[in-house]
Amino acid sequence: MTRLEHRLHELTVGQLAERSGVAVSALHFYESKGLISSRRTAGNQRRFSRDTLRRVSFIKVSQRVGIPLSDIRDALGTLPEERTPTVDDWARLSENWRSVLDDRIRQLERLRDDLTECIGCGCLSINKCALANPYDRLGDEGPGPRRLLVRHGTSSGPQAAGERDVHEAPNPCHADPCPSD
After folding, report:
1. Cα 97 to the chain's mean position, in Å?
2. CA–CA separation, 129 vs 52, rounded Å?
3. What is the pTM of this model?
């Protein structure tokens, strides 16, 4: 590849940062964790292939929805290193993550829809908590907001850090009419 071809197909770390909206220090961190890679010039400067933009975008969006970097690295590890990933490569990665993303969507919907109800966190501060979680019985199932956690037992994909496989307890205040009304 000639120098001109390198300039058309490769980015400096500053160009990658500017185009991706990710700080140079974050790009160095991603590289140190094996999420992206670069080649070094004769002057020891990093050069990234243009397809690194898509990888960085994938990292950024995945992090934004709470997917741990270790899971992102594992997913990116399924993509070819020796060539630019194709649509089929990205489709395989997407299919592998479908159930994980569906679980996250369900959890976000529960958070949106049920936050004004008893979430099983043990606070007992909402009137419905005493009925839905008397004496904090959900605390026996484990820590956290038991009613908001999504069941992950059959998921083959990665789980968010700290999530556990839980059994959802029914919320009597979702019945019509709510017994506490």
Report:
1. 10
2. 49
3. 0.63
